[in-house]
Write the structure tokens for this entry.
Amino acid sequence: MRIPLTFVIFRVAAVCLTVLVLALFGLGMASRGPLDGLGSVTSQAISWLHDNTGVTLR
Amino acid sequence: MRLPQIIARRLLAAVLVTAAAGLSSLAVPPARALASAPVPVLIAIHAIHYREFNRLIFQFAGPVPVHRSAYYVPRLPGSAGGSARLMVTFSAARGYNAHGQTAYGPAERSYALPGVIQVATVQDDQTGISFGVALARREPLSVFALARPSRVVIDVRTPYPTVLVRDYFASSGSVGGQSVILPASRPVLPWAAAPGALQRLFAGPTQDELARGMRFVASGATGFTGLTIGGGGVARVRLTGGCSSSASAVTVATEIESTLRQFPQVRWVKIYDAAGHTEQPSGHTDSIPACLKPSTAQLLAARFKGPGILALLIIAGLGILAGLVLSVLSIVGGLALRADTITPSAYLAERIKAKPAETGQFEPDTAWPFYPFRQARADLARIEAERRARYRKMWTWPFHPIIWIILAPVSAAAIICILVAGLTTVVIAALFALVTWTCAAIIGAAFVVTAILLRGADKAWHTGMRTEASCPHPQCYHVTAWPAYKCPGCQALHRDIRPGRLGLFTRRCQCGTLLPTMVLRAAWHLDAVCQRCEEPLRLGSAALRDVRIPIFGDTSAGKTRFLYAALDSLIDTTQRAGIAFSFPDENSRDEAALALDVIRSGHDTVKTPAALPTALTCRVGTGASGALVHLFDAAGESFRGAEMHDSLGFLDHGHGLVYVLDPFSVGSVRDRMTGHNAVAIRLAHAAAGDPETAYGEVVSRLRDSGVEAGQQRLAVIISKADLLTVGGLELPEDSGGIADWLMQAGVHNLVLSARRDFAEVRYFAVASLVAEDAGRSYDPGAPVRWLLSSRGVRLPAADPLAAHGMRITRRRIRPGPGEQAGAEHSGTEHSGTEQSETAKAQP
């Protein structure tokens, strides 16, 4: 039974949007893209790790 | 005067003028001179200890600042502590280079000297530079300048002994727990060693110590106050400023405790916040304020060593990678490979289970549901099931628990990796669900709004244009707002084609055929069938204005003849007005052809079969503004028997009724014509029954069925008007006159009842044929046009003669023996028997 084309469109769109959100989030953590404000969170995490364990990630 | 003297004087004057000009050129304005003078730029600060004094050196590029001062102040802005505070100011000097960068190094610097503790920048702008200098003790000082290089030197005497103590600073190069703080030596006054140590601690590491990775963690505190060391070995100190652990395992409390605990008389340290709170203010134990307490994560992190953390990070990274792969596999499996597709039949079963169809309701249609309304949920559930199944497999691999025990260290790492992978899959699944639900919510909301608008458009069209789906078939005659439609692919019925959860503009049948959703579109693309009997409806049903006109009356009253003649009149009227007229179905077309043949050829009408009638439907007008006119004609016998009466459903849904009254069935009329024109009476073949009986039966049925006859129009047709004319009886032309004529003829009960039962009653004298010498037209189309106008279908009036009568074949009626000559007739409604009688009367 052939499924309607709208099902395929919705599924592909949902996957693409999820990947896009993940990519934007990842780029933001690296201080790039529209969510670059998340870079400060990364910095804080790295600093926290550095302060508490001495491990340097940069 | 002699020439040499004159020359000498002129030379002297020239020299004087030249000298004056030269002097004037050398006379520069004071402001311009200041602007061009070089501004001293501070490029370095040094502090050196000598035997009896500490020397503080400020080195400049350019000249030495002319205005310089150094004086003691009670307090200083910033963090400069110490027991004495010195303010050093250089006017008309600056501390930054042409690029705006500080030229003399850090703004704060600490020194491990007996006198100078810290130098901190207080001001650095165009007006000058100021520094605050924290000193161990207020002592005399001297300020002087040195050249080459330009320096300002401040010597502060240190005529007191010192002892070395240790300040403990955090080390950015060390790892975890107590080992993250390192000691640094400081000379302090022997009689104030503990306060001095804390002063030096808050001043921070020296430049060399900073270079070695040491730093002071202030935790928001700006200083301390009230340091006391009690007899029980309990040191108490209160922080000033803020207080926060700042997500760090090492806080200012760690540094203070280590620093104070070097003194033999200190065994426990109780640190208070600025508000005077600490966790355990009494007892022999260390205590810190709650704001400095490290979190569990901080404590755990502090217990791990660097390589361990790195290993954990690598394992976590592998876990995230595994989680990503697992998520991708789950999504691909859930959406494509093993998708849980909600088929139309499954969706139908779900809906029936959720809301069973009640009596009189149909089951929902079988079509693919709109994705966000059902399939989205199924997809998410399937992905979650896939994710759980795959994740469960990760825990069961490598199959036997004993292997996990044997490979304990690896197993621990694997467990961490799997846990992180699981967390990653949960996060990604949640994100996918969030995206899906967000899209579904947005699109679903837009869908619902659009569906409401489209349904509203359908409803508005239905109400405004008075469209309905009328079943023309016997035993049904059901009327609904919209019909059912047959799928062209699988012939499955779609009973509610309106925009809804099965589709907005189109819906996909279970066979895959795409169907339009709105009734306005489906009416022209799909085969409409009756919701009840599932017989085919007329093309355009429920999209066109719908008018139903039942015709009733006694046997031989002339109903069928009237129907045919009215149809002929309508065709003629619409043709002359340029209005399209057609028949939407084959049966109506055939019956109309027969009717027109009968009427135009002057043949007699065949007796109407006793079976229930199928509507003769014609379409008036083109496009969406057209109208479907259904004409129902049942045999007169149908209105008598109670059994047949129950099946005359078309009467219940009529928009206006036509009652055909045969004037020759009225006794007084017959009496008046007896002896004068027997031929006319014989040709009329009067209806045998009482005219009021058939009327009463129908009205009674309408009342029993709950039909509000008071909202309808009734057209009372006095048929065979031509024969009355032949017989010498001329009917009045206006409706009121005809009603009065009927009253006088003894049919007053019918007239009075009709006036009471219906909203509007109009009387028409109608002849299916016209006598040659008739001076007036008995247009049979007039009653139909009047009824159609009540439903918004307005047609022009017929031409009195050309419209109908002139087309009819005329036949002369010769009187028989004893009958009055000159009577002419061109035909009446007759049964088969009647036809033979008519034929006998013809020449």
About this structure: The mean pLDDT of chain A is 86. The CA atoms of residues 10 and 57 of chain A lie 40 Å apart. Chain A touches chain B at residues 1-4, 6-7, 10-11, 13-15, 17-18, 21-22, 44, 48-55, 57 (CB under 8 Å).
